[in-house]
Design brief:
It contains ten helices and 16 strands. It has a six-stranded mixed sheet, sandwiched between helices. The chain has a five-stranded mixed sheet with strand order 13-12-16-14-15. It has a three-stranded mixed sheet with strand order 6-8-7, covered by helices on one side. Strand 14 and strand 15 form a beta hairpin. It folds into three domains: 105 residues, no CATH class; 151 residues, 3-Layer(aba) Sandwich (Rossmann fold), CATH 3.40.50.300; 73 residues, Beta-grasp domain (Ubiquitin-like (UB roll)), CATH 3.10.20. The chain is globular. The chain has 351 residues and is of the alpha/beta class.
């Protein structure tokens, strides 16, 4: 029996097993095994040498447009950025990623029109694994549907989830430190719904028999597995429905029309807000700070990230930096490359 058949059987067994305290441990083991098999299937694909999409990331952040074929992804890219992505009335007009650049509020945001995704993408259907790989490397996911295929929103979310992409989530508060001996010791800072035996079963499925486990949230089995694997990506998302000039649905999403340019300014603002930018002002040594042209970076960026963005050679010649602003205890504090910057900080780099 090949891996795909094992995966299918496990999915069916999980679906048909009622979840309760009596079955919790069994389901936990099944879900852990399913996740492990999916990882194995993905590794087989990578070893096959099938080329992935080549995307050169540019600008201050990268957002990808993901949607079924013919929902207007190319039209939206063109309307937002002035790019020239081919638009057609038939499915799969876009056969490779097409980039454009949105300039908003001082930020340069790369928007990428990806080929249409289909149900079964996480299993490789319709170049699905290549699309998911491109999504994994992005900073923001724009899920695009049209008013006549709203079900595609849930399908896309499911395919991305199966592909290891967690939309609008934070990494789980699960920390596993493997040891040579001593068994499994579980410590939690909150009451847990999962019993320890279930947690141990899941760990053993990943051949972890000796470890210190710290849990800082009331995890589900899925979040526990994510915390053990530590190979998921956590990306913010926006759900938008295009072509609302034809029909305006009642749905919890941003309603837009690329053709009639309805709510495109609002979408651009949402993209900017979701990317969570901050502004850092550069002050060359012995000179005044440039307060007119701040550098736009993502929240959580370090001094090293700024150096890398300015010029890769600065990382090699970096000595230290001084910062004025809310990220330091006192103005002019000396910091290293790992120092995390805050919005409005003034940064001087010495090299």
């Amino acid at each position: 029996m090949d891996i795909e058949e094992q995966i299918r059987q496990l999915e069916e067994e999980i679906k048909n097993t009622p979840y309760n305290k009596a079955t919790e441990r069994h389901i936990g083991r099944l879900k852990a095994k399913l996740s492990r098999l999916r990882e194995g299937a993905e590794k087989q694909v990578r070893k096959s040498g099938k080329p992935a999409f080549a995307i050169k990331k540019e600008g201050d952040a990268t957002a990808v447009i993901v949607g079924f074929p013919s929902v207007g992804k190319s039209s939206l890219l063109n309307a937002l950025t002035g790019a020239k992505s081919e638009v057609g009335v038939y499915d799969f007009t876009t056969l490779k990623p097409v980039p454009g650049m949105l300039e908003y509020n001082g930020a340069r945001i790369q928007i990428i029109d990806l080929p249409g995704i289909v149900e079964g993408a996480s299993k490789g259907k319709g170049r699905g694994r290549e699309i998911i790989s491109a999504v994994r490397s992005s900073d923001l996911v724009i899920i695009l549907a049209d008013p006549f295929n709203l079900h595609s929103i849930d399908v896309i979310k499911k395919e991305l989830y199966t592909g290891g992409i967690r939309l609008d989530q934070k990494p789980p508060g699960v920390y596993v430190k493997k040891r040579d001996r001593g068994g499994i010791k579980i410590t939690s800072t909150v009451p847990l719904s999962l019993d320890e035996k279930t947690i141990v079963e899941v760990l053993r499925e990943y051949r972890i028999h000796n470890a210190e486990v710290l849990i800082r949230e009331d995890v589900t089995i899925e979040r526990l597995i994510d915390g053990i694997l530590r190979n998921r990506v956590y990306i913010p998302s926006i759900v938008a429905v295009n072509k609302v000039d034809l029909y305006k649905p009642q749905v919890d999403a941003l309603l837009v029309s690329a053709e009639k340019r309805i709510n495109l300014d609002l979408l651009a603002r949402k993209i900017y807000e979701k990317l969570d930018f901050i502004r850092v002002y550069l002050k060359p040594p012995g000179e005044k700070a440039n307060l007119d042209e701040p550098m736009v970076v993502r929240r959580g960026s370090t001094v090293g990230d700024v150096c890398r963005k300015l010029h890769r050679g600065m990382l090699e010649s970096f000595r230290y930096a001084r910062v004025r602003g809310s990220s330091v205890k006192f103005n002019g504090q000396r910091v290293g490359m790992d120092h995390v910057l805050h919005d409005g900080d003034i940064l001087t780099i010495y090299s």
